[in-house]
Specification:
This protein is an alpha/beta fold. It has two domains: 122 residues, Nucleotidyltransferase, domain 5 (2-Layer Sandwich), CATH 3.30.420; 160 residues, Nucleotidyltransferase, domain 5 (2-Layer Sandwich). Helix content is 37%, strand content 21%. The strands form three sheets. The protein has a five-stranded mixed sheet with strand order 3-2-1-4-7. β8 and β9 form a beta hairpin. It is globular.
């Protein structure tokens, strides 16, 4: 057996998992993601692969879920919010160290692929995987294959402007990418907390806002309603463009059960159709989707 080895290169942890032919996880290990340098990150990935292969007794095909994308011009990392990776030859360096081909895809693409292959969107032809966490990302899978696109940015909805801004959305917040009014600047976890602080003067994290809203706190409830309406606008535009059968939410905010009821009740206002059959669902594999999707890259496109 040649194992599928998936690695999820996260902001705080890097995880490896080995999948067998049926997609069962047979080995898993994680380490803290080095924050000091790019070179330490490469060493950590190589160390995980070697550790896994010692435990398994056999080499594997390596796929990596990473923030950002590989430039089609230079082959180097671009658009990563882990900025130490940007303009670095990650694929080339890992292939030299490991002595074999490595496949790398955007972490949101890997999330979408995992959920499309054997997760919450299994059997759906067009799947949009959405990350609502420290940042906002997206990945598109068509017939179980990742859609990369002409510029390797397919699914990057988080860096489009929030559609139809209202007076309540002003002033436009500035995104880390340097542009004002990005979807990420409204719909990430930190952006939700910042919106609550801006309106109420009260500093709370997202979990506290959700918990207090559930207990009847009017200000926290209003914050979540603003968030849901903005999410409905943003996803409505994505549906108009992609017409996905299923949208799967990932990231920390995907645990808000109310989103799956409330957002589809709103998004019809923004979708150019007499009915909306797109389903909005939570992930089946949760925070394991990135590593599983990375492992599936060898079977379903990278």
């Amino acid at each position: 057996m040649q194992w599928r080895l998936g690695i999820d290169l996260g902001g705080t942890k890097t995880e490896i998992a080995a999948l067998d032919a049926r997609g069962e996880v047979r080995f898993r290990h994680r380490v803290p993601t080095p924050a000091a340098s790019y070179e330490d990150t490469v060493a950590a990935i190589v160390g995980l692969v070697r550790h896994a292969e010692r435990e398994l007794g056999e080499a594997g095909r390596v796929g990596i879920a990473a923030p950002g994308a590989l430039s089609l011009v230079t082959g180097r990392v671009k658009n990563s919010n882990s900025t130490r990776l940007n303009d670095r030859p990650l694929k080339e360096d890992l292939e030299r160290e490991l002595g074999r081909e490595v496949r790398i895809a955007n972490d949101a693409n890997c999330f979408a692929l995992s959920e499309a292959v054997d997760g919450a969107a299994r059997g759906a032809s067009i799947v949009f995987g959405v990350i609502l966490g420290t940042g906002v990302g997206g990945g598109v899978v068509v017939d179980r294959h990742v859609l990369t696109g002409a510029n390797a940015i397919a699914g990057e909805w988080g860096h489009n402007p929030l559609p139809l801004p209202t007076a309540g959305d002003l002033p436009l917040p500035r995104c880390y990418c340097g542009r004002p009014g990005c979807i990420e600047a409204y719909l990430s976890g930190p952006s939700l907390a910042a919106d609550h602080a801006r309106v109420t003067g009260e500093s709370l994290d997202t979990k506290s806002i959700a918990a207090r809203a559930a207990q009847g706190d009017a200000a926290c409830e209003a914050t979540l309603q603003r968030y849901e309406e903005r999410l409905a606008r943003a996803l409505g535009t994505a549906i108009n463009l992609l017409d996905p059968h299923v949208i799967v939410l990932g990231g920390g905010l995907s645990s808000l059960e109310r989103l799956y009821r409330n957002v589809p009740a709103i998004w019809g206002r923004y979708i150019f159709s007499d009915e909306v059959r797109t389903r909005l669902v939570p992930p089946l594999h949760g925070d394991s989707s990135g590593v599983r999707g990375a492992a599936w890259l060898w079977d379903n496109g990278g």
